[in-house]
Design a protein that fits this description.
about 200 residues; single chain; alpha/beta; 5-stranded mixed sheet
Length: about 200
């Protein structure tokens, strides 16, 4: 933990003063333009990849960048999506998968997750991703599963009432990305939903 305390001290000493005006504005306003749904993997840092300032991204991170399809119950992902879309009015929503994803690797390789029952239950939200990958004849291919999973999670996202309304009104666009850890490349999949909005 000492390195975290050192990081905070460095932030307060070197970073914060240069962005004091930004933080002063952010203290009273929260208007991010993009909801970024990414994996919990520590190697995938949305603000670093996109080089965005605080306040620009509303970030949700889950194991495997999974977004459960809408159900009558509530959960943290559903609440965050609804808040970002219906309250904050984000204009773009990104689901970002990545290379070497542990969740997707476990599924592709059929690993025994009996010692991690909560993880196994959570990964059931990728059942459609597994089916899509098998249908393309690439069962067991982690890279293919990562891509199919992004597409499947975008489909799940569109089942949320706040997202469905915003899509129908042309108020939001959905994007699917895959980040390659080894080379830093970000690929946008041909899955964008909704109208292309002028910048």
């Amino acid at each position: 933990m000492p390195h975290l305390a050192e990081g905070i001290a460095r932030f307060q000493r070197e970073v914060f003063p240069a962005k004091a005006g930004l933080f002063a504005r952010l203290a009273t306003a929260h208007r991010p333009g993009t909801l970024f749904i990414g994996c919990s993997d520590a190697r995938v840092v949305p603000e670093l990849i996109t080089q965005t300032d605080p306040g620009e991204l509303f970030v949700v991170r889950t194991a495997g960048n999974l977004v459960p399809a809408h159900t009558p119950g509530t959960d943290g992902v559903t609440a965050a999506v609804e808040y970002a879309v219906a309250v904050l009015g984000v204009r773009d929503v990104i689901v970002c998968g990545h290379s070497a994803c542990g969740a997707m690797t476990a599924l592709a390789e059929g690993r025994d997750l009996s010692a991690a029952p909560a993880v196994a239950a959570w990964l059931r939200h990728a059942d459609a991703s597994l089916a899509r990958t098998a249908a393309t004849g690439r069962q067991g291919d982690v890279a293919a599963l990562v891509r199919e999973n992004v597409t499947a999670q975008l489909a799940n996202l569109a089942t949320h009432p706040s997202v469905a309304r915003a899509l129908a009104e042309g108020a939001v666009r959905l994007h699917g990305w895959v980040f390659d850890i080894a080379d830093g490349a970000v690929e946008e999949l041909a899955t964008t939903a909704g109208p292309v909005l002028a910048a």
